[in-house]
Fold these 4 entries.
Entry 1:
Amino acid sequence: MRAVRHHTDCAWVLLYIERWLQAPVRMPDGALVKREKGTPQGSVVSPILANLFLHYTFDMWMQRQFPACPFERYAHDAIIHCDSEEQARQALDMLQQRFAECKLELSPQKTKIVYCKDANRQGNYPEQSFDFLGYTFRPREARNRSGELFVGFSPAVSVKAIKAMRSVLRRWKLPHRGDLTLEELMKWLQPVVRGWINYYGRFCPSTLHRALSMVDELVVRWARRKYKWLRMHATRAWDWLERLKSRQPALLPHWQPTAKVKR
């Protein structure tokens, strides 16, 4: 009885997956266009379907073919760690064949071999950086436990992620919200800035703190529109912000560079 029910449940799951894959695309004018391949763009089910498919197509295949190569995959983005350029090229060639067998194609713009240059790897290679999950991985100066400088291959918030943050702040048009009090403005910004720091501040937080100067710029622009005595005085407005940060550093998370941000 249990086996029959399990079989029935699986059939329903397969039916739902089939319906999602066959669902047409609604165009801006309302017309429905039949799709012949791919998953619905922007749909909440697309990442689920991609994970189900790539678990078999990529994850299990990698474990069989390259058991000595660790890898990370998030949705359709993945990184494979190889010991040599020869191994990396072999993996890339075999992966292209594997994807072709599964009716998939690697993105030629995003797929590349990267040399992780650092203090211990001094060779040269055209590609020495890559982006993954909002971070840019590349050679950077760092300090060891003794305080000595060295070059490591490490992540920091990417330029693309910073542009996305700036786009969010612009979209809100907060400098034009003269109806907000300072406390209301801070309550609006606090959870967003805290989220950025919790995610992007885990590695090389100094890069993120420099990027978050755009939040300070927004607060200054808001203040110059809000307070008449600051409207025509940019320097005075920045002085006002510095005094505010000194008196109330807890108002925004990035005003406390040494504090550990919590959810």
Entry 2:
Amino acid sequence: MRRGKVWRERGEGSVTTDLEQRLFRVGPKRILALDGGGVHGVLSLAMLCRIEAVLARRSADPETFRLADYFDLIGGTSTGSLIATGLSMGMRAAELLKLYRELANAVFTRPFWSFGVIGAKFPSEPLEQVLARIVGDMTLDDARLRTGLAIVTKRLDTRSTWVLHNNPRSRYFEAPADDPQAFPNRRIRVADAIMASVAAPTYFEPRFLRVAGTEIGAFVDGGVSPHNNPSLMLLMMATTEGFGYHWRSGVEHLLLTSMGTGLTRRRRTADHVRSQPSAMMAVESLVTIVQDSNLQTQALLQWMGHSPTARVINAEIGDLSRDRIPGGDLLWYLRYDAELSAAWLGTLGIRVSSDELAAMEHFDRPQTIERLIEIGEKVAARDVRDEHFPAGFDV
């Protein structure tokens, strides 16, 4: 498929772009969902390097293969939105991993007077400079996006989750003819969408985007929505009426690969909770909501689909492998992640200190990157298997 080519397929006077041809061609569809998690994005990228190598060996041209050649829709939240954009543009996972290694210290270095209480903990300029170099003034209708792209963010002024995506048949991609005040999604700058998705409260300033006429929306990190793990949202996008994809569900028709950034399950004692200041208890409660949403998403997808990577959700429901949603499997579902605990990492042959584990509870510690990459590589070597990707989904 050559970029820039225009297809005429939808009636007189209408045109179909390369991307539209890609999104709506007959055959099975593949989705890649990328969790949020700051510098923990390197864990996802280390696993994606392995997935890219596995899929490249099965492609017609392994030397030029990219994940964008396989996945029809790539979406992410927060740091996942940056990775999703790079992959959608045809970057290799290894290129993005190198980028994270180089830039983590620049992005996550705060002025000595900044504590994230009155103002943001980190300045936005270093990340904006990175995005200027990678995506420039690219908008969501740019032909350099080789596959579907979805960026999850939270509009705080209306308390609603927004997914900014590049499906040319979606409801708000173009401005309605009867609404001259509308601002079409196709004109949203990709860099602005990413900055909106990563604007974690206290870490970065909110992002203010024009949404219609003179109306401005205030956007913060998509991780404060239920979709820090965007897998369920992307499945709904692909199969429900409103987003315009209308992809066919079924275990032979839809594959969803979900990438985590490390699950922390550090337990507290009741006495610890009792002694906490109210403000700290509130912050910790909010953090656990993100984890709860992640596990609920995994439970629902394991219940709705066939999953060779199914994990135990909790002691009561197990991995749901004996449970099936009425009507049969809706998708082929894969999930790759690591549990950041001494016992779990010990199964990989990795020994970590309590100080390392404490540091890895935070998403803004560049000093944890090399250890997280090691964890991601060892998880991928053990858990990513060729048979996880059925031949029926090969391009």
Entry 3:
Amino acid sequence: MLIGLAADRRSTSGYAFSLGSAAIAWSSEKQPTVSLSSTEGEYRGAAVATCEAIWLKRLLKDLQEEVSDPTTIYCDNLNNIQLAKTKHIEVHYHFVRECVLFGEVELQYVSTDRQTTDIFTKPLGLEKLRQFSGALGLRHLNVPNMRGGTVPKD
């Protein structure tokens, strides 16, 4: 899960979920409201990712593939992980907190340089683009170069 900030001050949230070695669900969306802090924007993104995680778990259950372990949501903002553990937050944030408490999801820290969902919300250099697309199971990535051709695949 990741947040990027646009000129209109609205954050862009992104997430990707993998099953095995391939991404099966992903999103990159501008948030509908302006956040008062980066932590608030990140936490809203965590809420969207948590909703998707719960939906995917229910879909797998319908397909007779029940997942009993919590889904790990990687977060590069330590404040969000602490916020999900506190009792003193507004009601509209309790959804993520309850999912953490009930063991449906867990928030885990990942350093910003390893946050693969940056691919959805930030301009990346070629090396990071290849690294993150490979982590999402994209194997045939041709990247346009400045002369209109493509950079060869690895």
Entry 4:
Amino acid sequence: MTMTDTAAVRPAIPMSSPAPQISMSPLELDGYLTGIVVTPKAAPILPQRWIAPLWDAEPIFNDDLQIKLVLGPVINHYNALGIEIDRSLKRLETDKIVDYRPRFLLGDQKPARDAVRAWVRGFWKAMALEPGTWNALIEDDRTQVVIRPFLGFFDLGELEPDDIADDFEDMLDEHAALIPRMILILRKLARIRHAAAQAPWPPRQTKIGRNEPCPCGSGRKYKRCCGRN
């Protein structure tokens, strides 16, 4: 048998299956990760919760290398979003300028409504992870204005023609232009709530009975010592 014959009967080495691809489009993924970053709750949403919805069904990875190849860019994008949003929030606070640009915005051009809808679709999926937090914002008169620019782009089913205002398309363009500012406001609210959760609680004040020993250590009753003042 020749070497050629030997090679012909050698069993083929099985190729590993490709890594499962994320179900979201780049626009939808950017909206989803942005929603994760700015969800206004005291504690951030942990990756263990927000990674699974990246796929329509539970993914199966062959090895750690596949996990790293797929999730590495997603984690990097998530971290970069947090840095960029915080930088833009600082610029808004100091210079009153909104320079943050979600992925659906290209320069100063008016974004395509379909692009905004795809981005907001991802944002909506992030909101679905914390419905209580977002519902509270929508129901509060003081904060519902922050959510309003997103509403027209939510996929809530087809509207009847009579339910659509004559200026609906113009309103969508105005709201799309407001979304970058609302992202920064939501991030600010998240940071405020996080700081409040980290602050130590004030010591509990216990009422001292008038006939109890005075806490100053004098040995007298409270009413005849510090309680007289």
